[in-house]
Amino acid sequence: MLSLLTREAASLCDRVTRREALTVGSLGAFGLTLPTLLAAEGPRDGRPALTRRPRSVILLFLLGAPPQQETWDPKPDSPAEARGDMGVIRTATPGLLIGETMVRTARLTERIAVLRACQTNDNAHSASGYFMTTGHAHVPMQVENAKPGAPNDWPSLGAVVKKVLQPRCTLPAAVTLPEQSANDGGFTWPGQDAGFLGRASDPWLMNCAPELGTFEVPGLSLPTDVPAPRFDGRKGLLDALGGAQAHPSHRSGVSELSADAHTRRAFEMITSPAARKAFDLDSEGPRARDRYGRTRFGQSCLLARRLVEAGVPLVRVNWTRVPDAPNNGHWDTHSKNTEGVRKLMPVLDAAYSALIEDLADRGLLEDTLVVWMAEFGRTPKINGAGGRDHWGPCFSIALAGGGVKGGAVHGASDKLAAYPKDGRVLPQDIHATIYHCLGIPRDTEIHDTQGRPLAICHGEPVRQVLK
């Protein structure tokens, strides 16, 4: 893993120690490193080219699932047991009401389209999450702690983007941060990697705590602020260690450091000016960082903006759990829903609104689709613990920028936000909409492990919210 250290940590030592070298060299024992992925990737010739200027996607995946009733689809006239005890606020869009805690977002709804009748009909985090991230239902449905593997090995949205788009910069085409989505107990959801496309198409997983200035990136270990001459010294180390591969007794320790073309490409990727600039959040200044919120999610959103600005087509930002916090710090509010929303929404509201405003200020919003979504919604009635449980039959997502009509509301739920009443949208339709905004034809073919051609998507774009 590449540890992009804080400036303080980086200043402790200029040399690469034997321990560091062995650490990097032994990465192969724990999975494919970036050079191996690059080697497996092969040539990129023949991929479909975009027909217009390229767009990017920032996908905000909100682990646990915020309640639609307290966010995008409040029902102020419903019975108290369904309505809950939170109010609503007006927005910049006439007639559109949203949850009272979304104060900053309310000012931006003329840039946002809301889809109020999304549906998976799956109430299991990992299975419904698989459906939302791949566009294909989990087999069987309603399976919690679902394991990856056939038949549930469809590639994630990021993996497809990485597979079919031409590279735009030295950085990977798809990045996930600050960690994978997982259930309590560490059960990582299926549908977040490349599945049957193979590891070469895996999105680049960046485990990080950007609010603390620490990053881990597959491939190498380097601090963010090492000057160019010292990078040259590190590159010399790669050359030296690569020569050790010639002797059989050294292969187990340094095989992953072979100074072949793929190692060099990995080195150049992560030490490129674009990468170093993207990771350097301190260059934003205190006011800009405060605008997003000095939280893991907020600073991850800021990093996502910087990665898109550097040319990355798709960045997925996952909401993460907080140990020992109520509901583990995420949106799975089985108890004390009101308390949970009041605690979590200021973090989300700040980061989401700052991201949209920042992209707009930089002239990037029209070329960047920002997606707010989760694995499902929450139950229409409050339970005995004051919470809302899992609910796949109806929930809301939001789209902003990137070719979307701001101020639009598509679909409607019933009086309890329990079931779609009009304009139902399925996960495959969400994927089709995202592909449309990226300029990728939804009938683009990929191939499974048997070499059979498969269309990347069988849904229909939600044209009512597209420009």
From TrEMBL:
Source organism: Gemmata obscuriglobus
InterPro entries: Alkaline_phosphatase_core_sf (IPR017850), DUF1501 (IPR010869)
Listed SUPFAM superfamilies: Alkaline phosphatase-like (SSF53649)
A Pfam family matched in the record: DUF1501
Protein name: DUF1501 domain-containing protein
